[in-house]
Description:
By secondary structure, the chain is mainly beta.
Amino acid sequence: MQIIEASTQGWKQYQHPREGTLEVIPMGRGSADGINYNLTLTRYGEDSDAFVTPRHHHTFEQVRAPLVGNLNYGPGQEVPEGWLSYFPAGAPYGPQRVSGGVVLLLQFGTDYLTSDQYKRAHRALEERGHFEGGNYHDTDPASGAARTRDAVDAVWTESLGRPIAHPRPRYGAPIVIDPDAFDWAPLAEDPLVQCKGLGRFTERDVSLRRVRLDGGVLGLGPDRTQLVFSLSEGLEADGQAHPAWTALWSARGEEGAVSGTGGVEALVVELPRALG
């Protein structure tokens, strides 16, 4: 099991193609069952350094959990602190302006770029054009005409070497979830583990749960990659207790377990199952 404690990491300035400033703590990146995934704690700039995007959509899926402050994702639309959200591939959102706050951000998809792929594409684009207003501006090599594209789409197109195709949205908009509106239910395998099933999405069965442990053990099976993110202090794994904001990764093919006492809570994300 891979364990990453945010408290032992430092915030790093993140180069991105939008407007505003971002700082991140990397909390896990990898590949499983045909998808790439990346988890970060993301801290947004404030006021004139706020993170700003035009209306857009992506080819990949996202789970966003505001840990400090609310997350804006469109005019009059926010994910409140302590809530959870699932952003489907292809579903549009924005324009957004996020000023301050810390969000747990998980992104995953079949063509989600690795860190090196992203950096190489970003550098190459800067040599031929410029990023401004959340878009990328350059000259169409075929026609010689000026053109404007979504900044993230431009980076993905550059790296993949082909125009990206946004999937038909399975859901029409981001799904915003209030965990407090769900009731706790004991886990069949261990009644000392309380669980809130917050959602299961798409034919690949992406699963979101909130768990509370009071002496119980939560098993993590080998059938897919799973993330357990501690929301309070004291989650235990490999014989050690960990602070809040710790990411525990159980990779596909391995079996793991976490435990805890005193009602320690965690978010559990089961990444997509393999098809076939």
